[in-house]
């Protein structure tokens, strides 16, 4: 890796870590000057760009987040029964542009059902949902076609919005790359590993540039690096003004979100 | 139009990549043809047509079941229900016609005494009816095994029922049998007219039913209100 490539990687890493653009530019210029004066391999002088960027980001802190915008998703009084069993009782959630909401709760407490109600895939017994703007949905599993290539998935989703094939393919590959996946291979979806298939699933949901993004535990099968990329991508989408609802049972990520809806029934200590 | 064509293309691509299924789809009508070939050719033609109907219906059933999870998200991605079911149907019709061509050539080469125009019309009726018929079973029955068993029952009834009886006219593939009689036995044109009419009516009814069921299943739910930005 020469100095230019090292600096480009550094700039990308700083951007991913939400370092303010002015500060990031300043860091890159300083590093460039230092490397030019030193003349040695940048890895020997400053180390791996990722680690250097991480150290800088930690010392500077992230750029101040834009204030949440107008309401994009408003779900009120959602109740859903399957036979005699009430899965959801009077669940409500309001998410604004530029916010991430986590839906948490014990197994079987209706997290996925709540998301499917919000996506309009299931009718509730009571309650209403208002969505402002375009809606994107990533199911927990399924939602891809076994015998199609990733590129064909992108074309299929793109055509829904009237996007031509070339741009749809490019947009899909770019979105996949942000998850650390090169999606240009000739591998059918059924031959992808579970984690990669889930990346395809997630990429498809962001392709139509939704204003409201509903994600049902989309990270199953992700390795550690992809998992980090996933949350970084969510943060980036939030900063772009998207409203995101993510079903999760990983409570250690709750410091990354703005809102939490706990669907655990009150008798089990929930706070929905 | 682009959305319709894209769904049709992807359906055909998916089907053509299932090589094992494709081989069985071709093998089935061929077996049906060969098994009766040493006897009266009319039985071979009727069996062949039934084999094509069964093969295309099964392909349609499996394609519909496979798309069950994908379609709701495509709906959210901007497709309307008619893009999805009509696009899929177009893809299946195209694949069905592609499957039929070698069998049509087989009848031309192996049984030159037939009215081959009639054989072609009968095959068109088979494909025309079979695609929406398989799709209808696919949208009504969520599990492939249940759908396959129902399809098997219908084809068995079709094979065993007296074609001259009133009940036979209610079976989906009666049209091809009637037209085959015209093509094989050189009967009067009434057979061809009745058969073609039956095929057209059944295709139209099945397409309308698939449209109704798919539109309900993929409808915009009342609880969800969409507002534009700004």
Notes on the structure:
The complex is a heterodimer of chains A (272) and B (230). Chain A has 272 residues and is an alpha/beta fold. Chain A has helices at 3-16, 21-38, 42-45, 49-60, 111-119, 150-160, 165-177, 194-207, 224-239, and strands at residues 71-82, 85-96, 99-104, 126-132, 135-138, 212-216, 243-247, 259-262. In chain A, strand 6 (212-216), helix 9 and strand 7 (243-247) form a beta-alpha-beta unit. The radius of gyration of chain A is 21 Å and the shape is globular. Chain B is mainly α and 230 residues long. Chain B is built from 9 helices and 1 strand; from the N terminus they run αααααααααβ. Chain B is elongated, with a radius of gyration of 19 Å. The model of chain B has no long low-confidence stretch (mean pLDDT 90). The chains are: A alpha/beta (272), B mainly alpha (230).
Number of strands of chain A: 8
Structural class of chain B: mainly alpha
Assembly state of the chains shown: heterodimer
What's the total helix number of chain A?
9
> What coarse outline of chain A follows from CA principal-axis ratios?
globular
Q: Estimate what percentage of residues of chain B fall within beta strands.
A: under 5%
Q: What do the pLDDT scores of chain B average to? A: 90
Characterize the largest beta sheet of chain B: strand count, sense, and whether it forms a barrel: none
Using a beta-carbon cutoff below 8 angstroms, give the protein chain pair with the largest interface and the number of residues from each chain: A-B, 40 and 31 residues
How many strands, what sense, and barrel or not for the largest sheet of chain A? 5 strands, parallel
Instruction: Give the low-confidence spans of chain A.
Output: none
Distance between the termini of chain B: 29 Å
Q: What is the fold's blueprint, element by element?
A:
The complex is a heterodimer of chains A (272) and B (230).
Chain A: H1 3-16, H2 21-38, H3 42-45, H4 49-60, E1 71-82, E2 85-96, E3 99-104, H5 111-119, E4 126-132, E5 135-138, H6 150-160, H7 165-177, H8 194-207, E6 212-216, H9 224-239, E7 243-247, E8 259-262
Parallel strand pairs in A: 3-7, 3-8, 5-6, 6-7
Antiparallel strand pairs in A: 1-2, 1-4
Helix pairs in contact in A: 1-2, 1-4, 6-7, 6-8, 7-8
Chain B: H1 2-17, H2 19-35, H3 41-66, H4 70-76, H5 81-110, H6 116-140, H7 144-160, H8 174-185, H9 189-217, E1 224-227
